[in-house]
């Protein structure tokens, strides 16, 4: 009993936890002594109201943001601004939500809070995609990658951090699972002990009732014996008087008196026996009360263990949710640098097998007089113009599912289509090339108007077999090799600025879709004469008549 009571005292502090209610937070806010305490209490009230009242949640979160800004606390400012954005998003006010997510992102960058940076970027990107503003969505993700790159955080660094965190979470999950199994085993044992004690308690209650009935009968018999003793005492006193006045009759009565005394002695013995039996029954009742108290304490212990087990399961569920979120983020990073099929194979097997594709179309672009233009611009202007052009190229090819970006080398841009098991015609990659030239022409007109140097690009396309695969370990890259790549580069070199130059192999596949201008046989370095064509425009499909 003492050990059980001591165990309950040790476990009691672990069940005193609980969350503060909204009313308690409001009362603490009224009694807050400084701005720091008011800042945190406003933030907690904003979180508490988020699922109950969007407008009230936004109001408290804005107060927390203003206090954080006044105190020069960018981390708290980022969290409060992110909470305001969530409130507006739940209220379906997506414009204000994007404004506050942008504020949260700026503060998170100042505080170097990488996790909140990723969350803010994801929220802004989803809002832009929901509004079908894919250029803005792309710009948001690109700015985030640029920030991580400037801070020295590469994809491999994020992956290694994620793997370490994932391993730690897996170990913690295994430990919690063992703890749950141990608690469940103890719960089963305690349940069986409780059932056994309940059965014993019921049996003791029945025995107690029987003993109480017997005690009641003995007490009634003892009362009868007491009455008999009183009658015998009075009778003995009367006989004693009569003995003094009688002779023979006195002797006879004396004999009767002795008999009565013997009966009285026997009654006294029975009364003593009944008294002892009553004392023994009282001791049995005390034992029954002790067993009943033990049953109550055992029930409390089982309840405590059940609450501990439920809390452990809740923690395990939260950690599993964190692991799932980290896995989704890792998958998104892989899909940004690898094709989907290659990324899935890399995740499943740890490596990707090289593949050979019989009919792949390769596109090369290169800017004219890039070195000369770079001398006329500052480093910042040069990188900004080049980055703007490549971002536009990335956005254009992202509109076509069959085109994969391969890499950029200096001012050269390379992409390809047909890197899949199904046969793909080069129609989309030629459409993308025409859009690239259209974009550069628009930029050219704007630069001429401003009197600044501008970029003009040659684009060359060739179709043929290639080998594709992943190379490297830490900063791995997806690339393609083969004579097709070399010929595509020669076709680009022999092209003209502002036009799309294609080989005869590509022309034979698209001649019914596009109007092309035959250039004749053109001498290509180390490749001899190659028939080449300029793509003029896409042919319009003839209307279908009834």
Comma- or semicolon-separated keywords:
546 residues, alpha+beta, Serine Threonine Protein Phosphatase 5, Tetratricopeptide repeat, Helix Hairpins, Alpha-Beta Plaits, 3 domains, eight-stranded mixed β-sheet, 16 helices, disordered N terminus, disordered C terminus
Note down, in words, how this protein is organized.
The chain has 546 residues and is α+β, with helices and mostly antiparallel strands. It has 3 domains: 18-153, Tetratricopeptide repeat domain (Serine Threonine Protein Phosphatase 5, Tetratricopeptide repeat, Alpha Horseshoe), CATH 1.25.40.10; 170-334, Helix Hairpins, CATH 1.10.287; 349-538, Nucleotide cyclase, GGDEF domain (Alpha-Beta Plaits). The chain has 16 helices and 8 strands. Strands 1, 2, 3, 4, 5, 6, 7 and 8 form an 8-stranded mixed sheet that branches. Helix 1 (2-11) runs parallel beside helix 10 (248-337), helix 5 (74-90) runs antiparallel to helix 6 and helix 9 packs antiparallel against helix 10. The chain is elongated. Residues 1-19 and 542-546 have low confidence and may be disordered.
CATH class of the largest domain: Alpha Beta
Distance between the termini: 96 Å
| Alpha-beta content class | alpha+beta
Strand content: 5-15%
Biggest beta sheet summary: 8 strands, mixed
Instruction: Count helical runs.
Output: 16
Rg estimate, integer Å: 47 Å
CATH topology type of the largest domain: Alpha-Beta Plaits
Q: Poorly predicted ranges (pLDDT <50, ≥5 residues)?
A: 1-19, 542-546
Mean pLDDT: 84
Number of domains: 3
Overall geometry comes to: elongated
N-to-C SSE string, H for helix and E for strand: HHHHHHHHHHHEHHEEHEEHEHEE
């Amino acid at each position: 009993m003492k050990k059980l009571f001591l165990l309950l005292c040790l476990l009691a502090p672990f069940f005193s936890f609980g969350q503060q209610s909204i009313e308690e937070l409001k009362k603490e806010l009224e009694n807050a002594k400084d701005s720091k305490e008011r800042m945190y209490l406003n933030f907690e009230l904003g979180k508490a109201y988020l699922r109950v009242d969007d407008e009230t949640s936004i109001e408290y979160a804005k107060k927390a943001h203003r206090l954080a800004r006044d105190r020069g606390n960018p981390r708290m400012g980022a969290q409060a601004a992110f909470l305001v954005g969530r409130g507006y998003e739940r209220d379906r006010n997506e414009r204000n939500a994007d404004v506050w997510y942008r504020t949260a992102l700026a503060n998170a960058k100042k505080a170097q809070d990488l996790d909140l940076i990723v969350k803010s970027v994801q929220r802004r990107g989803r809002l832009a995609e929901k509004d079908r503003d894919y250029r803005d969505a792309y710009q948001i993700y690109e700015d985030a990658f640029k920030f991580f790159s400037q801070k020295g955080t590469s994809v491999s660094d994020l992956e290694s951090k994620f793997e370490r965190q994932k391993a730690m979470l897996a170990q913690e999950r295994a430990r919690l699972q063992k703890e749950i199994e141990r608690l469940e085993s103890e719960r089963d044992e305690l349940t069986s002990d409780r059932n056994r004690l309940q059965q014993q308690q019921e049996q003791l209650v029945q025995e107690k009732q029987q003993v109480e009935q017997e005690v009641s009968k003995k007490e009634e018999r003892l009362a009868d014996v007491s009455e008999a003793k009183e009658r015998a005492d009075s009778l003995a006193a009367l006989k004693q008087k009569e003995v003094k006045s009688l002779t023979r009759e006195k002797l006879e009565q004396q004999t009767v008196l002795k008999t009565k005394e013997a009966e009285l002695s026997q009654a006294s013995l029975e009364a003593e026996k009944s008294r002892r039996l009553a004392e023994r029954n009282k001791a049995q009742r005390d034992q029954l009360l002790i067993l009943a108290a033990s049953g109550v304490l055992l029930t409390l212990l089982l309840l405590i263990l059940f609450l501990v087990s439920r809390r452990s399961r809740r923690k395990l569920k939260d950690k599993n949710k964190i692991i799932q979120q980290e896995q989704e983020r890792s998958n998104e990073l892989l899909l940004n640098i690898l094709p989907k099929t290659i990324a899935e194979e890399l995740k499943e097997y740890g490596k990707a097998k090289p593949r050979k594709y019989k009919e792949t179309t390769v596109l090369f672009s290169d800017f004219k007089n890039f070195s000369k233009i770079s001398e006329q611009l500052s480093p910042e202007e040069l990188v900004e113009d080049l980055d703007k052009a490549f971002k536009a190229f990335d956005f254009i090819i992202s509109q076509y599912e069959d085109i994969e970006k391969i890499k950029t080398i200096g001012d050269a841009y390379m992409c390809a289509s047909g890197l899949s098991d199904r046969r793909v015609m080069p129609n989309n990659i030629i459409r993308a090339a025409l859009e690239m030239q259209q974009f550069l022409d628009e930029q050219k007109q704007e630069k001429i108007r401003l009197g600044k140097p501008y970029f003009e690009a040659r684009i060359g396309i060739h179709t043929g077999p290639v080998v594709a695969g992943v190379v490297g370990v830490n900063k791995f890259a997806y690339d393609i090799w083969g004579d097709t790549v070399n010929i595509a580069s020669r076709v680009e070199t022999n092209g003209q600025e502002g036009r799309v130059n294609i080989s005869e192999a590509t022309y034979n596949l698209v001649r019914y879709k596009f109007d092309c201008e035959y250039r004749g046989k053109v001498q290509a370095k180390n490749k001899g004469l190659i028939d080449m064509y300029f793509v003029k425009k896409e042919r319009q499909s003839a209307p279908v008549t009834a």
